């Protein structure tokens, strides 16, 4: 969603922005344009990862994320926490809500007989899980704990910090560097050979 489209959609009345004077609307629009410019690519990349490469769905997630940012523009300032972190969490929650919704399960088709039923092909998922598990095992324990708390246990950085007994900045740093190390491990030729 280009910034100009976002603003035109948001200001055209298709969303329900908070009522206020025109100067407030202009300030909100300017703030949203700045947020979109700074974070759209990161939110789209995150949504693509969460939707397993479904571009149309990822773009819908990005649009809804920025609509929610429009509604909360006054609170989206660095002094109130990471703006990008808030946007990524909103995108994550939107995708998880969609996965859990009954609409996602509606695409089941009735089959004619038991002979038509094929078992699920889990080989790729099992191999991927093993490679990821091996890669996680190569991380330093503190980085592995931070990743497990935030990604596997679906906790915010603040919740993970309380759980691990460390400052929130430490958790964020460990997650950042843990993901960087994990990416490096996963892209190394040795990881590819272990997966084969």
Helical run tally: 10
Which CATH first-tier class of the largest domain would you pick? Mainly Alpha
Structural class: mainly alpha
Beta strand %: under 5%
Form type? globular
The CATH architecture of the largest domain comes to Orthogonal Bundle
Largest sheet: none
Order of helices and strands: HHHHHHHHHH
CA-to-CA gap between the ends? 39 Å
The name of the CATH topology of the largest domain is: Rna Polymerase Sigma Factor, Chain: A
Low-confidence stretches: 1-20
Radius of gyration: 20 Å
When the domains are counted, the total is 2
Q: Summarize the amount of helix as a percent range.
A: over 70%
What's the average pLDDT?
A: 74
How many beta-strand runs? 0
General description of the model:
- With 196 residues, the chain is an all-alpha fold.
- Helix content is 71%, strand content 0%.
- It is built from ten helices and no strands.
- It starts with a helix and ends with a helix.
């Amino acid at each position: 969603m280009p910034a100009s489209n976002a603003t035109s959609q948001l200001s055209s009345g298709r969303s329900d922005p908070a009522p206020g004077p025109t100067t407030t609307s202009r300030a909100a629009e300017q703030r949203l344009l700045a947020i979109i410019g700074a974070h759209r690519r990161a939110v789209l990349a995150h949504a693509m990862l969460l939707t397993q490469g479904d571009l149309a769905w990822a773009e819908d997630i990005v649009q809804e994320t920025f609509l929610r940012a429009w509604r909360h523009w006054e609170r989206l300032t660095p002094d109130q926490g990471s703006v990008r972190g808030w946007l990524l969490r909103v995108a994550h929650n939107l995708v998880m809500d969609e996965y859990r919704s009954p609409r996602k399960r509606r695409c089941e088709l009735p089959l004619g007989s038991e002979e038509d039923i094929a078992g699920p092909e889990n080989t790729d998922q099992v191999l991927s899980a093993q490679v990821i598990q091996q890669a996680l095992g190569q991380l330093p324990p503190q980085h592995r704990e931070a990743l497990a708390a935030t990604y596997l246990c679906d906790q915010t950085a603040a919740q993970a910090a309380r759980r691990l007994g460390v400052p929130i900045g430490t958790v964020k740093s460990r997650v950042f560097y843990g993901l960087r190390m994990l990416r490096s491990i996963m892209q190394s030729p040795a990881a590819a050979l272990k997966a084969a």
